[in-house]
Structure formats: structure tokens, C-alpha cells
Amino acid sequence: MNSKEIIKQAEKAISKQFEIIDEIRDYNQEKVLQAFCDNKVAPEHFYTVSGYGHDDLGRFVLDKVFAQVFKAEKAIVRIHFVSGTHTLACALFGNLKHGDKLLSVAGTPYDTMQEVIGTMGDEETKNSSLIGNGVLYDEVPLINNSEIDFEGIKNKVDDSTTMVLIQRSKGYSTRKSLTIDVIEKICKIVKSKNPNCICFVDNCYGEFVEEKEPLEVGADLIGGSLIKNPGGGIVEAGGYIAGKEIYVNRAANRLTAPGIGDEGGAMFNQHRLIFQGLFMAPSVVSDAVKGAVLAAKIFDEIGYNSLPKYDEKRTDIIQNITFGKAVLLEQFCRTIQSLSPVNSYVTPIPEYVPGYEDKIIMAGGTFIEGSTIELSADGPLRPPYVAYMQGGLTYAHVKIALKKFLDKINETKD
């Protein structure tokens, strides 16, 4: 069967999943639109200020819109967050001090967060980490490296636990990403053991994939990157933190300085892009999720283990594809790169990347460097050689890339 026919049959089989994704898109689009209307977003909110960034009306309204969308008491949306990891680090360092205890409840966090915490990295990095600053750390291992250990969480959370870290997406692991229902169950367990414990959710890759967001089911604080889901593929940099006002304020003090908090920081004429990116995000995320569902169906059909399965509930935009061999992982990433709108002629090679222990191969010919709401694929060069495919500004782009990879597999067989 040729690649075109494989895709055509797969699309017929996943039509029900696409209907569900469309319903979620429509719900989230209306939610975002309502936030724009309620906060009276206007052209004057696209203007910028310079210097200290004082009295920035656009920045103020942008924070209000994000807060309403994510059902938060307060939000800060800033281009000054250099990455998702930096955003999360500000939330952690802002709310944890010497002697406080952080508990990761979804196993070991992904590689870059381990350096922030202090369980990985060279001596200098560890000295600057949470542990290096006197924060205590523990984690609840997963059951069979896959499932959340709810009983383990119940046993480890006590009065000494200041914050639990809930990583929604899987990172470079093969565990399941955490649905909103699972996050709700975690939060209920934590609060039953320690009502004062901060439930902090790393929301990267998860925004707008479901109808609800973590703050609606008991989380106190969330954070994420604007070059992932909520930026709609057009925001050039930045991140957001949202949740209870006291915790957001503390994170803002860490980003800037005590006494400045969220009141400073020129946004360098980025307001309009961030407003527009947020408005586009539900539809862009929807297309990315559809692409992931199609990939799941196709790779299962041709004999590769792919998670989540095409008919499983989705909570992020990431699709795991286990190739079992380094050469196949590299071939897949190179195919994605060859069909990227930017740098299609570049050949990705595995290399060491700051924050990661293993060599990483990355395919991402994106308009925004490092954007993972745009179609990209990457993975560490370690068994079982899993590709992490994410993004796709349009469903059609993902389909074209998958067709090309199927053609390459068929050529190899011939």
C-alpha cells in the first residue's frame, strides 16, 4: 500500500477523534475570545513603552487576559523569560527558600529541570541550584516507570512539604503525560495531607489541549513557554506564570527584583504578537494535536510503538515514536528537517546540548528558534531511541512530513 493510501485510510479511522479535538478547539476559542472582550483589548494595548517599562497599559491588560483564560487570580506574561525552564525556575526560586522542601510527584523531572533542582550538572551549576541554595528535594517514583503512584504521594506529602512539582508533559521519558483528571487527583491528595502545600504545575505543551486547565482543578500555580502552545506560533520569546496572586508576585520578584515585581520591564513592541498569538493558539494547538493523532495511527499500522495511542485522551501535543534503533530515529528527524519551511537543506546530527546528559538530535526548521508548537522532532541518542514529535502550525504540514517518511520507508524496503 502506498503512503497516500495509508494516510487516507488512517484519516477515516480517526475521524471520531478529530471531532472531539474540534469541540475542544471551539470551547477554548470562545474562552479566549471572551477574555479579550471582557478586558476591552484595543489598539492602544499594542503600543510599547521604553526604559523601565513603567505604566505599560498593554502589559497590564495582557496579564489580565491571561489570568482570565487560565482562571487565575493573577498572571505575568513577559518576553523576559528566556525559556520554559527559566519561567519555571522563577516560580520555584520565588516560592522556595532555604529549608523548604520540594517534592516531584511524577517521578524524575526532565533533564533541564534536574539542573535547576540540583540533581544534575557540574559543580558550578549545582551551587546555583535549588539544592545548592538549601532547598530540600525528594521525588515520588513512577510505578513501572509509567503510572503515577498516588499512594506514594499520600505517604510522602506531610507538613514539611512546601511545594509539589507536577510535570504535566512527559519530557524525554516514556511515561504517560498527566491529564487534567490525574492532576486534579494529585492536588486533592496533596491538599488532604497539607492544605498549605503549593501545587505547582509545569504546564508546558499542555495549554488548550483539554477544555480545563490545572488551576481549575486545584493547582495553585502554573507556568509555561510562549514559544509553545499559548504563543500560537508567532510569539518570538517569553513565558507566563499564573495562579494565586501571592505566588505569582513572588515569582515576579524573582524575575525582576523585590520592589519591582511585575511593574517593570519594557516589552519591546511585542504586545500585539502576544495578544494575537494567544488568540490563534486554540486553533494552532488543535491542528498540532490532529497531526499527533494521525502519526500515532500511522506508526501503529506500520509496526512501531507509538504513545499515546490514536484513540487515547490527549493532554499535550507530544507524540512518542519508539524506533528501537538510532539510525531510524536519525532518519525520522532528518525527514522532518528536510520538510521544514526554514533550513530544509540542513542535516541534523546528534550533539550534546546544555542541560542534557546524552547527545540529542533535533529537527526544527522553525520560524521562531526552538519553537515546539511548530513541527519539530527530537530525541536523546539512548535506548529505546524514542522520537518526540510535537507541533505543527497546520495539520497539512504534519501530513506532508508523515507521507515523506512513509515514502522513505517504502524505498528502503524496495
Mean pLDDT: 95
Structural class: alpha/beta
Residue share in helix: 40-55%
Task: Write the element-wise H/E pattern from the N-terminal end onward.
Answer: HHHEHEHHEHEHEEEHHEEHEEEH
Strand tally is 12
Q: Quick one: overall form? A: globular
**Strand ordering within the main sheet:** 1-7-6-5-4-2-3
How much of the polypeptide forms β-strand, as a percent range?
5-15%
Number of helices: 12
Cα Rg: 21 Å
Largest sheet: 7 strands, mixed
User: Low-confidence runs (pLDDT<50, min 5 residues)?
Assistant: none
Query: Termini separation (Å)?
Result: 13 Å
Give a structural overview.
- This protein has 414 residues and is of the alpha/beta class.
- It is built from twelve helices and twelve strands.
- The protein has helices at 3-13, 15-38, 57-69, 84-95, 111-117, 123-128, 150-156, 180-193, 245-255, 271-301, 326-338, 395-413, and strands at 74-78, 101-104, 136-139, 163-167, 198-202, 221-225, 239-243, 305-307, 319-322, 360-363, 376-380, 386-390.
- Strands 1-7-6-5-4-2-3 form a seven-stranded mixed β-sheet, sandwiched between helices.
- β11 and β12 form a beta hairpin.
- The longest helix is centred in the C-terminal third of the chain and has 31 residues, at 271-301.
- It is globular and about 65 Å long.
- The protein starts with a helix and ends with a helix.
- The model has no long low-confidence stretch (mean pLDDT 95).
